[in-house]
Amino acid sequence: MLATSGPQNYETWSAQFFPAGSPDALRSADPDLDDLENLQEYAFARDPDVHSGGASLTRFSQLPNGSCYLTYRRPRSATDLSYLYEFSNDLKTWHATTGTESRTPLDPLVEEVSVRLDYRLQRKPGLFIRIVVRPSPF
After folding, report:
1. Distance (Å, rounded) from C-alpha 49 to C-alpha 37?
2. Is 68 in a helix, a strand, or coil?
3. Distance CA 73, CA 116 (A)
């Protein structure tokens, strides 16, 4: 990701990589053919011109004390995204959940977010977690 300063939105991020009016600049475009649309690349602080090679966007970990964490990267100054956390036990029905976020700056543009998930999730068998990213306001 190229360095810029101040608040960032999709349009300013996209302009760092693509000429104005290019079809590659669309939120739904996938110019590097890695199955991640540009909006996903932006939301998870990826380079839309570099194939991710199937790398995961998130990490899940559980400590011996039972605490569950979801970790991912995102733009530090994005002004147009909302991140929501959901869980499911069957991959069909999803429920919103809460968590406590801690943020670690990785550079001027990117932060790593670790979310300590709601304690009630730790007792669920077959637990699946996902991050829903929405352009905001939604």
Report:
1. 11
2. strand
3. 15
